[in-house]
Automatic annotation (TrEMBL):
<protein>
    <recommendedName>
        <fullName>ATPase inhibitor, mitochondrial</fullName>
    </recommendedName>
</protein>
<comment type="function">
    <text>Inhibits the enzyme activity of ATPase.</text>
</comment>
<keyword id="KW-0496">Mitochondrion</keyword>
<feature type="coiled-coil region">
    <location>
        <begin position="32"/>
        <end position="66"/>
    </location>
</feature>
<dbReference type="GO" id="GO:0005739">
    <property type="term" value="C:mitochondrion"/>
</dbReference>
<keyword id="KW-0175">Coiled coil</keyword>
<dbReference type="GO" id="GO:0042030">
    <property type="term" value="F:ATPase inhibitor activity"/>
</dbReference>
<dbReference type="InterPro" id="IPR007648">
    <property type="entry name" value="ATPase_inhibitor_mt"/>
</dbReference>
<comment type="similarity">
    <text>Belongs to the ATPase inhibitor family.</text>
</comment>
<dbReference type="Pfam" id="PF04568">
    <property type="entry name" value="IATP"/>
</dbReference>
Amino acid sequence: MARRTYADEGAIRSANTSFSKKEKAIEDQYFNMKDKEKFKHLKEELEKIKQENREIKEELQRQNNNNGQQKS
């Protein structure tokens, strides 16, 4: 049975040409942009959750205040 091994011959990444460097730069730029988009989306989601949390706390505070006034 033949054994397969990994070889990077012919792989663009292993080549050290100006074309491969430009390709790597373009790929890196693309993935950085995608990461920034994901981060922005996560920050927006976090802000929504924080706002919902504030609203729930305010509602609980109002209910506690109303219960305290009714018992007096």
